[in-house]
Amino acid sequence: MDGFARAREAYRATSHLEGDGNWSDFVERAFLAEIPRRETTHVGDQTPFSPRRPLK
Asked: pLDDT digits over 1-21, tens only?
């Protein structure tokens, strides 16, 4: 099962328990949970983010 399918199933099974108003609420909460992990993992990494995807 791919990541999207897993997320969709988790949302469907738990949205009423977690108080998600809609899919966007669930996705936002997932993003906000991932941000601190990445900040902690990559602290001190001064590589700037690309302002956009590279052109092909």
From this structure: 899 999 999 999 999 999 999
